[in-house]
Specification:
Elements lengths: L4 E7 L3 E8 L4 E8 L11 E2 L1 H17 L7 E8 L5 E3 L9 E2 L7 H10 L2 H9 L8 H11 L1 H4 L4 E3 L1 H10 L3 E3 H5 L4 E2 L4 E2 L1 H6 L9 E3 L4 E4 L2 H7 L6 E3 L2 E2 H7 L8 E6 L3 E7 L11 E4 L6 E7 L3 H11 L1 H10 L3 H10 L9 E3 L17 E3 L7 H25 L6 E5 L6 H11 L3 E4 L6 H12 L6 H4 L5 E5 L3 H31 L2
Parallel strand pairs: 1-5, 5-14, 5-15, 9-12, 16-22, 22-23
Antiparallel strand pairs: 1-2, 2-3, 4-7, 6-8, 10-11, 13-14, 16-17, 17-19, 18-19, 20-21, 23-24
Helix pairs in contact: 1-6, 2-3, 2-4, 10-16, 11-12, 11-14, 12-13, 13-14, 14-15, 15-18
Length: about 500
Amino acid sequence: MQQQYVMGIDIGTSGCKTLIIDDQGRVAARAIEEYPLSTPRPGWSEQDPEHWWQAVKSTVRHILKDFEHISDIKGIGLSGQMHGLVPLDKDGKVLRPAILWNDQRTGKQCQAIHDTVGGIDGLLKLTNNRMLPGYTGGKILWVRENEPHLFERFRVILNPKDYIRFRLTGEYATEVSDASGTGLFDVRERDWCYLLLDRLQIPRDWVPHCYESPEVSGQLLPGVASDLGLPAGMAVAGGGGDSVVQTTGTGLVEPGILGTTIGTAGIVAMALDRCYDNPDGKLQVFCNNMPNKWHTMGVTLAAGGSLRWVRDMLGGAENEIAKWTGEDVYELLSKQAARAEPGSEGLFFLPSLSGERCPHPDPHARGGFIGLTLRHTRRHILRSVFEGVIFSLRDVAELIREMGLSIAQIRTSGGGALSDLWRQIHADVFNSEVITVSGSAEGGAYGAALVAGAGVGVWGSVEEATQVVRAETKNEPIKENTEIYDKLFPVYQDLYGALKNSFDRISEIYS
């Protein structure tokens, strides 16, 4: 039988990844291109959507340059950073830089949304989720209040991957997992919450048509196809928001397996076979990439982002070594961190460099090193960053356990999954087996390709598509390390509460 292929495109925060996989789940080609992030004010985060589009074109052309089976590519799946606001005018032109998922400017607007519908409990009845500062809904109101000259020109509201869909196909569309993260979506009914849109005076026709994730949402435009080197009319599937679809790409399709992702953000997630209620809205309950299935998760905003910050601020020596030797700078940092003992001799790192979302939805939260002494060295500082990120993931996982869901195994993915040190700390902090699977490090692009493959008939369903996923690495907990981390974790949990008032005061001064 003729080999079949699927393309996945992921619009990440730091760059675009495009890959091609075959019908056995093997990666046949990949390319990555970075683009800039703008922070015009503290707590703000923006990008120019044109940078995404140029990166898509560049990476697609790159992987097709030497690919000999272009005619056997059956479809394209899209993934992307969730929650971002891309407003378009009547001609489909972008009106302002996209406001991203980790932007924290909309606390006031989110509170106003809650007040409009009778508080958090009122909103949970409508959508089963809080309106968090990163969500799209608060951003729309922020623009209405602060940039009315632009707001009056709004005609369409898209998320990042759906802007790329528009450029590829000319269609205004989204799918259920990404729509869930706008804060304007009824995840129980898997449709827009039109009552909420009306209450917020957001026109109903501003939100795009919503598909199930595997459904074909459009075809490649002839001019775009010619420009990219692909056949015109190629199917583009619904795809998935990155926080959801990258867990699908690791095979999380049934309850019991906990998925963690260490990308720019840290994601802790589990598939659900029904739509659970979301008490207090501390977690996020979204539609999954499979019809009639859901997904619960909590997101910390600066996981791999914390290590990237350390690389830029403290990794001067490693950056120079990497430049001259070709070694991976993160592996060099990991080797230094591994020289410190588990627990970093009582040094804690709080990874709230972009505010926080879960388990403390607080745009004022700050990062910090707590417990520094004269004994601490650079290697302790580095190790504490690795440990602090994993502590933050366990903090989220405790909420999932409180829903009555057990954890039989952890599957980790994202760039952080490449680090054996991070995987071992992960196993030790959680006292659980931690595995990676084929595609773990590929992020949302891999899951998007699987979902698209199900939609175009390469596989019969998303569940069948995930059967190509294979275990690759396994880390078992080390008993003596687990004992140390079990003593330190409650201390970590107490730090946010002890420092919250200070965070608020700092934010008042520098707002």
